[in-house]
Structure formats: C-alpha cells, structure tokens
Automatic annotation (TrEMBL):
It holds the Pfam family adh_short_C2. GO terms for molecular function: glucose 1-dehydrogenase [NAD(P)+] activity. Keywords: Oxidoreductase. It comes from Egibacter rhizosphaerae. InterPro entries: NAD(P)-bd_dom_sf, Sc_DH/Rdtase_CS, SDR_fam. Its EC number is 1.1.1.47. Belongs to the short-chain dehydrogenases/reductases (SDR) family. The lineage of its organism: Bacteria, Bacillati, Actinomycetota, Nitriliruptoria, Egibacterales. It is an enzyme of class 1 (oxidoreductase). Gene3D superfamilies: NAD(P)-binding Rossmann-like Domain. This is Glucose 1-dehydrogenase. Signal peptide: none annotated. It comes from the Bacteria.
Length: 251
C-alpha cells in the first residue's frame, strides 16, 4: 500500500489480536513499528517475532507511559507518522452490576486510553508535517446490544474522538479515522460470548449466524482495513468510521 514504507508506526494493544495483526501487516509493508502493550513481555516477544523496531510496556490509561511510548518513537526512530490506537478491554453485564470501579476501568482503557494516545501523538505527527491515526472502536460504537452498555458508551466515545480530532488536526495534515469491527477471532472474543448466553461455542455460532458473509472476522481482516486507512491510498478519507462487519449493519 502506498505511503506505509519507512513510516514510523505506533500500535497500542499490539501484542495480541487485532493490534498484533496490524503490526504484522505494517512490518510487511516496510513500516518501522513500535508495539506498545500493557503486557510488556508479550510486546517485546511479538516485536522480535515480527521484526518490529521495539515492544514496549505501556498502559494506555497512564499518561506518563503513553507519552513515553511516543517519546521513544521520536528519540529512537526520529519521529512518528502513523498510529493505531487499538488497546481495549471487554465488558459485558447489566447496568446494575456496574460499580464505579468497573465503570472507570471500562472508560479508562477504551475511551480515555485512546484519547491519551491521540493526544500524545498529535504533537509528534504535527512535527512531521502530517500523518494518520486509526482508532479501534467497535460495532458497539455505531450500534448497541443489551448487556454491553459501558463498553458501548466508551466505543461510541471513540467514534466521537475520531471525528473531533479529524477536524481539529486537518490543517496539520493529520487524518483520523475509526474502525468498527465485527466479532473478531481474538483472545478477547470469549469475553463477549458470555453475553450471548450458552457456552462459548454456541455463542460463536450465534455470532456467525448474524453475519451475512457467514464467518467471524479474522484479525487480518481488520488489520488490512486499518492499514488502508493509514496509507496514502486513503488520502481523502478522514473522520470516517469504517465498518468491517461482513454485512451485519446492512440490515
Ligand atoms: P486482544 O485481547 O487480543 O488484544 C488486546 C490487547 O490490548 C492485549 O494485548 C492487551 O494486553 C492490550 N491491552 C489491554 N489493556 C491495555 C492497556 N490498558 N494498555 C495497553 N494495552 C492494553 O483483543 P482484540 O480483540 O485484538 O482487541 C483489540 C481492540 O479491538 C480493542 O479495542 C477491542 O475493544 C476492539 N474490538 C474487538 C472486537 C472482537 O470481537 N475481538 C470487536 C470489535 C472491537
């Protein structure tokens, strides 16, 4: 894809699932990738495996750690061009089960973590004269389902964040878009399956039955869409929510 080779890219939550697949595709495209993940050991080992530049321990809820990950890109790799703000954590449960601590955790990781990542990266991308960010929202960012409410609220917030930043950073040559993935086969998916009732296999079947293309998304399906949004092939696309859902939202 045009515009990915030799660019410095930061992927949060890049040690697993969708983030790992994005990191892999970006490395294939010749980007210089820094993986930042709560699990620093996994980040380092995935970075080695993929041939990425670095794998850092980084909790996106902690401003200092996020700032340090961006500073690493500037210091060690000369700057930052591309960001996949992807780290997230699942939640399912009825609203009356959501105590303050749980609510804070779900919003901190999924919404405020994305905000902190974009805030830290904005200055670095401006300094390069432009760049692109892709934020992993969810189908729960564009529609809703009972039993996911704090997660749904956070992921709707991620869409708002992408739209607001797209306008705020347009003059700086920075494009900002969001992804709304369908259920994707990653280690996170079983956590959502609980809300579907029955055991995990039954829940997966129910997920599949609701997807017109007849299969769950693979991490690579989402990564390919992320990389397109980050590439120069999407040069006129900003403030967009790219639904990658096998047709779920069509009707
Ligand atoms: P995953 O569990 O495979 O990967 C998530 C990664 O994020 C893990 O490596 C984890 O260590 C990291 N992480 C968690 N909290 C973090 C924090 N505070 N700071 C930094 N890293 C942190 O899950 P995934 O399915 O690849 O999820 C990636 C993103 O996709 C999430 O934002 C998730 O909400 C979203 N999403 C997933 C699905 C799905 O069905 N799997 C669907 C729609 C959206």
């Amino acid at each position: 894809m045009r515009g990915l080779a030799d660019r410095v890219a930061l992927v949060t939550g890049g040690a697993s699932g969708i983030g790992r697949a994005t990191a892999a595709r970006l490395v294939e495209e010749g980007s210089r990738v820094v993986i930042a993940d709560l699990d620093g050991r996994a980040a380092a080992s995935v970075a080695r495996e993929l041939g990425a530049e670095a794998g850092l321990a980084c909790d996106v809820t902690d401003t200092a750690q996020v700032d340090a990950a961006v500073a690493h890109c500037s210091r060690e790799l000369g700057g930052l061009d591309l960001v996949h703000a992807n780290a997230g954590a699942p939640f399912t449960g009825a609203i009356t089960e959501v105590d303050d601590e749980t609510l804070d955790r779900v919003l901190d990781v999924n919404l405020k973590g994305a905000f902190k990542t974009c805030r830290a990266a904005a200055g670095a991308l401006r300094a390069r004269g432009g760049g692109a960010m892709a934020l992993t929202s969810s189908l729960q960012g564009v529609m809703a389902r009972p039993g996911f409410t704090p997660y749904t609220a956070a992921k709707h917030g991620v869409v708002g964040l992408a739209r607001g930043l797209a306008l705020e950073l347009a003059d700086d040559g920075v494009r900002v878009n969001a992804l709304a993935p369908a259920p994707t086969e990653t280690p996170m998916l079983p956590a959502f399956a609980g809300a579907m009732g029955g055991d995990v296999d039954e829940a997966y079947e129910r997920f599949r039955a609701g997807i017109p293309l007849g299969r769950l998304a693979a991490p690579r399906d989402i990564a390919d869409a992320v990389c397109w949004l980050l590439s120069e092939e999407a040069a006129m696309v900003t403030g967009h929510v790219l639904v990658v859902d096998g047709g779920i939202t069509v009707g």
